[in-house]
Amino acid sequence: MSAGAAKCFASGEPNAEQRMALEAALNTPDVAVIQGPPGTGKTQLIAAIQVRLAEEGLGHATVSRSMLLTSYQHAAVDNMIERSKVWDLPSIKIDSQGRGSTAHIENWRLATVRALREQVGATPDGRRSMAMREVARQTAEYCLAPVPVDELVRRLERVAVQIAGLASDELADRLERLVTDLRVSEHMAGFQADHRRESTLRAVRGIRCEQVSFGDDGPLMAAAAIEQLSRSPVADARHIEVLNRAADWAGEGPFPALAELSAVRDELLDRLTDRADRLFRPAAREDVVNLLNEIVDDLDKGRRTGAEGVHTALLEYLEELEGDPEAVLATLRLYTTSLGTTCQQADSPAVQDAKDGERLFDTVIVDEAARANPLDLLIPLTLAADRVILVGDQNQLPHMLEPDVENELRSDAGNELARLHESLFGRMFDMLHGGDHTPGTRRAVRLRRQYRMHPVLGDFVGHAFYGDNLESPRPAEAFAHGLDRYQGRPAAWLRVPHQAGGEHGGQSKSRTAEAEAVVRELRRHVFDRPDLTFGVIAFYSAQVRLIWEKLVEEGLAERSGSGFQPVERLRRDGEGRERDRLQVGSVDAFQGKEFDVVLLSTTRSSRPPALDPAQARPEHPKHAKYEQWARRAYGHLMLANRLCVAMSRQQRLLVVVGDDAMFTSPLAPEAVGPLKDFHALCRSRHGIVLAPHAEGER
Q: What pTM was computed for the model?
């Protein structure tokens, strides 16, 4: 395990299963399959695999753009590349439709700039080098584009801060005196400029353009205007020529160019009132330039020669990062080890262009591989020259099937439909993990330790979806949420009984009472705890939209184009930095995401029928049509993989919001057992059951 790979893990080193998965990925002659339940560090593992592969190839292989990072969805690709760095260089996403984000590149650039400034500024010589280059840059800018005195004063004040304690006291004192003199001269110049401008305006307004008034004193007023305009660059030769003709007019009868004179007056008034700033163009002051050059020379002489070359190289790198972001992106495209794109675009012209016309990658890494259907998955797999590494979890969201094909197979061959719902990832994992592969070569590894969730929640998820094969090594103290309403417990059920209003809608369900309960719960906490993130998950898109609409009504969200977004205050943390503190979405949109607090809206709520001892009604578990009734009553909630994703996004607290009678009823199908078990957990010492308007436990 190299130091670079170890840094990819939050704990500073991999656990036993992560180490085995890393070895399998490095040593496989063809395929490695890694199953990672929620929170087991799959993304960290992918980052470490890239580092180790690049290290292994250094010196005898071309590592630039040698790895392909791909997944079924853009969001998963973005998540991979944002967390992947090799030799501190980020990965690059290739997207022919322009849907990819370069925000991680900008974040990397800004973080690198900060780190370089801290590194160079850690020593007196480094600070002198930074100050010298900055003062030299400002001197050159001032010479090329002189600024007015007020802006010059501000720039010199910044120079004074930059050279404090670095330049000689004599130069610092001279700079201070110069700034003081400039402030005084600025005040006087402003007074004189205002006086001259007013005098010029009065003279131009006095130009006579009517026949009667021109006959009174037109030539005299034209001469007065010429005298004032000669002190400024406002008038051009044409203006002066017309004014001279007016001033020299001594003929009898009307002045023949009154219309032309009127146009000149209007143009001059426009220039004086709308573009008065052009009256007095600044010029570079020799005393300022000379003093700044002396400061640069003094800082240069004060540096020790030992580290000068290092500082120079770092500062040149810093200037490139700060001054030309586009060049930075172009350079990264050449030197990054990994390119990212979706499965369907893996063999696109855009990716081949990024590879300089080459098609094959040494290594192809597929994240969330269980979500890609076999045909989509085959696209990137055919691009791997040495190895394929599949990372995913067959217990989470599956791949999608074409509805027409699914309906046809449901009627013709039920067994075939069930097989088609199995992911290629899951089949390969079962085959390779079971030993059906080359002896002595480990090709399949299951990660068993989750670090995302409170151990009570981790144990619940492990029991409900992974056969108790999931460990939670982090202590409960690391997951304290500090929300008094929940009394420090990690599990809560917010009851919204059927009497408050049932579900409505057709194929996509919604429930108003439940949406309002979710929003009330959010309103209690989101503004008081700017350090926490909140995720709201619903099983139906209609419920997602309804929750957004209720958030808008309560002032927690706003409409944005055709969608919604949280208000500005909820898009920043307590220190004002950008952070998505509130997200609302369906289960499909939330795989791979995590939040401090999750509110899960169950939505399904219908009037519970009485248990029929005669087993004559379809609601009875032993009735022949019970399965059909259960699917109609519970819908998506009967899909184990959706429940797994929905109940494993939280870190500190999971709040299920819904009609608990739907899941505690003896008529509830076994498929919704995880929700029934969670309700039981909430009634234990680890949880709490609340009513929407109650403050205490029920």
A: 0.73
